[in-house]
Amino acid sequence: MLYCIIITFAKYSVLCLYHRIFGKAIRRGIIAVAMIQTIWMVVCVCEGLFRCSPVQGAWDVTISAVCQNFQLIVIAAEPFNCFLDFVMVALPIRVVRSLQLPVRHKIAVSAIFLLGSL
Amino acid sequence: MNDSQARDIALVVGLTGMSTVIVMLRIIARMKGKATFGADDYWIFAAAALNLPYMGVYIWGLLLADTGPGIADVHRGNSRTRQP
Question: Does the beta-carbon distance from B79 to A68 stay under 8 Å?
Answer without folding.
Answer: yes
